[in-house]
C-alpha cells in the first residue's frame, strides 16, 4: 500500500510543471473506533482469542497503532510529511469504555500518537464531565469549532476552535465541526451551544487563510452526506476528513463511494472527502499534493484493512490484556445460543426492519408485557453490532448494547406514537440512529415523501388481531431511558408521555435473559416494518 501510494505521488511530481516546489502531505486517519480496543470479528463484535490466532479477526488498538507506526516511520524516513488524525467517537462501544471511561481512551490515544482529534457526539455520552476526562489527559489538541463553550464551566477553554500544525516547514490548518443534533444523540447539557456547521467552518477557514495558512483540512464528525455538503459550500478547504456515519469508501464490495470522493468545491476546484468506516477495522491513508502556491494538484489513497496481516503492537496487546482481567469473567460468560447470525449491521437497522431490532424490541416487550404494555419502540442507533452463530457471550450482548440504558415504561396516545415514528424515519437518508425498531406494532414508510409525511398503515394488536392505531387511545409503551427522555429526536416522549418510569433493568441484561429463555434463538424478520 505504502509503496504504491508513494509511487503514485512520485509520478505526479515528475509530471508536474513545478515538481521541485510540490509539497506532499500524507494523512493517516481513523474515526468511530467506539472502544473496540480488542480485535473485532467480520460483524464488528468482539473476536475471540482463538479466532484471532486463526487469522479471522480485524483491528483492535494494537493493530491500529502498529500500522500507523509502520507507515509513519516509513514515510518520515523517505522524507515525506505525515499527520495522524482522529475524526471522533472514541467513546462507547465495549466493556472497556463502560469500565474505564475517558482516562483509558486518552491513555491509548496518547500511545498511538495522534496529531489532532475532532470531538464526536459520543464523547458527550457521560455529560461534560465525561468529556473532560479525555480533554484533561490527552497530549494533542482536540478541536470542534462550532461549539460555543463560554457558558460551560467544565469545558471552557478546553476545546480548540482550530489547530495549526507545522509539518515539513508548511502550516497545515485544521477546522472542525460536530453534528448539531448531538443535543439529541448524546448528553452535552444545556451549556454547550452548537452553531451551524457550514457557517462555523466557513468563518474558521477564512480566518486561517487570513493568517497565511494556505493548506486547510476540515476534520469533522457530521457524516458522509454532510461532509460532501461542506466540501461544496465552504471556501478554502483542501480536504474533508470525516466520521460519524461509519461509511466505507474505496474499491471494495459494500463501499458507499470512492476513496477519496471528489466534490466540486466552492472555489471551483475539486475537494476530496474521506472517511474510514469504524470499529478499528480500517486505517485511512489520503495523499495530498500541493503546488508552490498552496493549490491542491492531486489527491490519491485508499483505506487499509487491518486484518491478520498486521501484527499488533505487543505493548498495547499486553496492556489490553491487563485491563481485560477484571472484566473477562463477565465478558466470557455464555448466556445463550443462536441458531444463525443475528444481523445488527448499522446499514440494515437504520433503514428498515432488522433481526437484531426484532430481538431487542421483542425482549423489551416480553419483559414488561405483564404490566399492560403492548408496544415496544427502540432506536436502531442503539444497536451497535451483530452476533455470530453459536454460543452467545455476555460480552457480545454488551457490544450490541453498550450504553447501559435501562427499560423505560410510559403511556402515550396513538397520535404521539405516530409522531414518534415520523421522527424515526425523518432522517433515513442520513442513516440516522433514530430509526424505530418495534414490537407489538406494525408500520409502513415511504422515504420518497417529505420528512414528517412518511408514515402510514400503523397497526397495533387489539383483541388478538391487528387493527389501525387510534390517535386518541392511550397505549402502554416500553423503550429505553435515552429515547424516553427525548434522545434521537424523540422529544414527544418526554413532553407527552405519561406515568413514566425510567429505572427498569439494564437493556443488555433483558436481552441476554430473553435469549437464554428462547435458545437456540432463531433470528427472524416478519414484515412488521415495510418500505413502500
Structural class: alpha/beta
Radius of gyration, whole Å = 23 Å
> How many helices?
16
What's the architecture of the largest domain in CATH terms?
A: 4-Layer Sandwich
Task: Give the overall shape, derived from the CA principal axes.
Answer: globular
Number of DSSP strand runs: 26
Q: Can you say what the CATH homologous superfamily of the largest domain is?
A: Metallo-dependent phosphatases
Which spans have pLDDT < 50 for at least 5 consecutive residues?
Answer: 1-20
Question: So what's the CATH class of the largest domain?
Answer: Alpha Beta
CATH topology of the largest domain: Purple Acid Phosphatase, chain A, domain 2
Please tell me the total number of domains. Answer: 2
Distance between the termini: 43 Å
Largest sheet features: 7 strands, mixed
What number is the mean pLDDT? 93
Helix content: 25-40%
